[in-house]
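Checklist before submission:
- one chain only
- standard amino acids only
- sequence pasted in full

Submission:
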Amino acid sequence: MKDTKNTSAETVLTAENYYDNYGSFYDLNLTRGRMKKLSFPDNLLDFLRKPKSINFLVLGSATTKNINAVTQIGFDLRTKANIQNDIVNIIDINDISVALHEEYVNYLDKESSWGDCKTPREASLPTFPYPQFNVEKMDMCRLKYENNSIEVVISDYTLNFLSSFDDLRKVFQETSRVLTPKGIFICVFKFSENPKDNPEIETREANLKVYKFHLKQYLSIASKIKMGLVPITPIEKGGDTICVFQKL
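Returned file contents:
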């Protein structure tokens, strides 16, 4: 992301303040709350819970709150007994976000005794079991993972930072490629209720641009690459929804 200097009183999104501004809007704790209201089919939960270990992929993360939140999503989809065997891959295109996540993960890796925490930040960490984390700078339009290697992909509004339909299609295609058969893509996104080809653009604080395509465009892309919409709940209204797609 290219830095933009602030030439007026308006705060402009830069690489330095991206982490604070994006993370203040969205985090996976909110997504987890919405997921807990869904009734996942038994056969889908069986698929996720039977293996001793599975791989998660988080597409973009601008707050380290997501490290704890994705662990708890793992508890919901898996079990606490198995979560320590799982691998959670977190990617982001922003160097600062990646560095902060790596710092947090390093705290988790080195602390074997919670009673001997040496810093306030370490002492504040929850004491539940964690999976293994891999944090990497990566473009979600060009994933570096092998085909059929990930069971669960999660996107928490990151689709709304794609300004072109072509990039949106690439993310769905790449997600489908890396997902195992029956793997799922959990995505929360804002959508436009105006049926037009170009995205509706919403400008948030710090000049943060949110791009919203019509709902049918998201569903059409998924259908064309054989990712079925899991019939968990009706699509929410109000231009904001959570969808769970499954690779057929």
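Reviewer check: Strands lie at 55-59, 87-92, 132-137, 150-156, 179-190, 200-203, 209-212, 227-229, 240-247.
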